[in-house]
């Protein structure tokens, strides 16, 4: 019961809609700071301000990343983001990431993607 209550509080704190898109298996290109090394990831969920990612390499909380998202017919530019939390899950890592620098155009594309996915679910 307490777990359900905490989950409800988390949902109420969110400022924008979040959709689960693991079933779409959308790839993400992740670069740590200004490194040229690309870490592959899979997008798990997305909102206007945050993403949940799955990677096969541990990335520490507070790490600054540059990401590029491919959302079907949408390809964002580089988005600067910060790792908020990390959870290890059977040799993979679930990352909670917050956008810290994103263009207005990329934010608009993400909003339209979320809205279109929400309409498809109903």
Record the SSE blueprint.
Layout (H helix, E strand, L loop, with lengths): L1 H12 L5 E2 L6 E6 L5 E9 L3 E6 L8 E8 L2 E2 L3 E11 L2 E10 L2 H17 L2
Antiparallel strand pairs: 1-3, 2-3, 2-5, 3-4, 4-8, 5-6, 5-7, 7-8
- The helix-strand sequence is HEEEEEEEEH
CATH topology: Thrombin, subunit H
Could you tell me the number of beta strands? 8
How much of the sequence is in beta strands?
Answer: 35-45%
Overall pLDDT level: 80
How does the helix and strand content classify structurally?
Answer: alpha+beta
Compact overview of the structure:
The chain is of the alpha+beta class. The protein has helices spanning 2-13, 104-120, and strands spanning 19-20, 27-32, 38-46, 50-55, 64-71, 74-75, 79-89, 92-101.
Summarize the structure in words:
This protein has 122 residues and is of the alpha+beta class. β7 (79-89) and β8 form a beta hairpin. It is globular and about 35 Å long. A six-stranded antiparallel barrel has the order 2-3-4-8-7-5. It has helices at residues 2-13, 104-120, and strands at 19-20, 27-32, 38-46, 50-55, 64-71, 74-75, 79-89, 92-101. It has one domain: Thrombin, subunit H (Beta Barrel), CATH 2.40.10.220.
């Amino acid at each position: 019961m307490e777990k359900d209550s905490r989950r409800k509080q988390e949902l109420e704190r969110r400022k924008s809609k979040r959709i689960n898109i693991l079933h779409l298996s959308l790839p993400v290109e992740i670069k740590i700071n200004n490194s040229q090394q690309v870490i592959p990831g899979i997008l798990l969920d997305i909102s206007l301000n945050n993403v949940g990612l799955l990677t096969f390499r541990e990335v520490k909380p507070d790490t600054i990343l540059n990401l590029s998202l491919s959302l079907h017919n949408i390809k964002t530019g580089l988005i600067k983001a910060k790792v908020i939390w990390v959870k290890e899950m059977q040799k993979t890592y679930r990352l909670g990431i917050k956008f810290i620098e994103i263009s207005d155009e990329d934010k608009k594309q993400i909003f339209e993607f979320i809205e279109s996915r929400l309409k498809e679910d109903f």
